[in-house]
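Example record for the data management plan.
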Amino acid sequence: MYRELRSHIISLLNAGIRLDGRKLTDYRKPIELEYGVVKTAEGSARVRIGDTDVMVGIKLDVGEPYPDTPDEGTIIVGAELLPLSNPEFELGPPGIQAIELARVVDRGIRESKALDFKKLCITPKEKIWMVIIDICPINDAGNLLDASSLAAIAALKDAKYPSFDGEKIDYKQKTDKKLQLEKTPIAVTVIKISDKFIVDPDVEEERVIDARLTVSSIEDGTLCAMQKGGDFPLTIDEISKMIDIGIEKGKELRKYL
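Corresponding structural encoding:
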């Protein structure tokens, strides 16, 4: 079954089309972004790319800074892959896919300096804001990486600080102070199948990939993070081409914010 599917997909790619009729670097439609979908969170967003549907919520908590960064806050990213979104997912501790998904989202935000961690400091060496980002796919129809990354940035844009008197947080009271985003990194995952490059794979295409490269870039096209996946290596020339595709398609996705 795998060989037949792979052979069919490659034959289509050689003809310049995909299983669903798209061109090689087309995203599925519609792409929809909705802000403020979880009223109990400090910020939230929902992103749909085709049939892939992801929700992200933001919680702001007060904690102690790390010893090596006494005047900086931090982010904590987690992903929960529930069976309701894909029957192949299982209940229990986060698996490899959930851990990688969280790390890719974390790296894009962290390495781009999307948040100024120093502005998250309340009292040096004592109190900081911790930005907790929870990723919850509702339906996995492929390309969770890009959908989750876009939803995370949108949720951060939506986030407002809760009421805090210096000692205790009142989560029932939201302030008008928004979480300030310095940059908006966008992640685009470029897939290599045989000698062709595609974006936004569906679940069938994800089964037959050779390699993938998630490319995160900011508004001016500057590369800020990458994550390699798949079982096969990539040449320097292939990486360069994938980066170019990722940055160009990132400009397209950014418009939905």
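Summary line stored alongside the record: The longest helix spans residues 236-254.
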